[in-house]
Write a structure and sequence with these properties.
191 residues, mainly alpha, 9 helices, 67% helix
Length: 191
């Protein structure tokens, strides 16, 4: 019976419209999988949250969500022993965590009393400043591991630079000697 009622109301179309407005991958997923509730308390709570969110959006209090990625596969893999994340994956995790922190701050900055449900949601968002700053310190914009990641890495890269400079100097010297030998062995031609 419920399926027939949902089909008559075109509930799946409504979920599609909501998912088109979602700003994050997880938001799109959640909007597409919405299901009505028959629990009065749940319905009242969700209506109150929706009303508060609408008022917050009308007041231009939209939390920034543009740096959010679906990091669930990354986190799942990171939990497994022996699995590392790439630099790009770490940057996505840091970006998502930073965005979560900004969303938390935005929700907690809403006026008490008028936005208590949204503020309660903000309190449930974790803070990951340490992870974000550590990834930013160690991983560059192209996903590369920076020399600042550790003293040992910095030292190794310094040694590599020194070796490259010595090799470059020796090659330049060999080319110079080679060119001078060619110049000496070349017979002079009268013009």
């Amino acid at each position: 019976m419920l399926d027939h009622a949902l089909a008559s109301l075109e509930f799946d179309v409504l979920c599609g419209l909501v998912s088109n407005r979602a700003l994050t991958p997880l938001g799109v997923e959640r909007a597409r999988s919405l299901q009505p509730s028959d629990d009065r308390e749940t319905v009242l709570r969700l209506l109150e949250e929706t009303g508060q969110a609408r008022r917050a959006l009308l007041a231009q209090a939209r939390p920034p969500l543009s740096g959010t990625f679906d990091i669930r596969p990354h986190l799942s893999r990171a939990r497994q022993k022996g699995h590392d994340l790439s630099g790009d994956e770490l940057r996505q995790v840091a970006s998502t965590f930073q965005t979560c922190g900004e969303a938390r701050a935005g929700l907690l900055a809403l006026q008490e009393g008028d936005f208590d449900r949204l503020r309660a949601l903000g309190e449930r968002i974790g803070e990951f400043r340490g992870v974000v700053s550590e990834v930013r310190r160690c991983i560059g914009p192209a996903g590369e591991v920076l020399a600042t990641a550790s003293e040992a890495l910095s030292e190794i890269r310094g040694r590599i630079r020194g070796i490259r400079e010595r090799v470059k100097g020796r090659l330049e010297k060999l080319v110079s000697i080679y060119l001078s030998l060619i110049h000496i062995s070349e017979p002079t031609r009268p013009y």
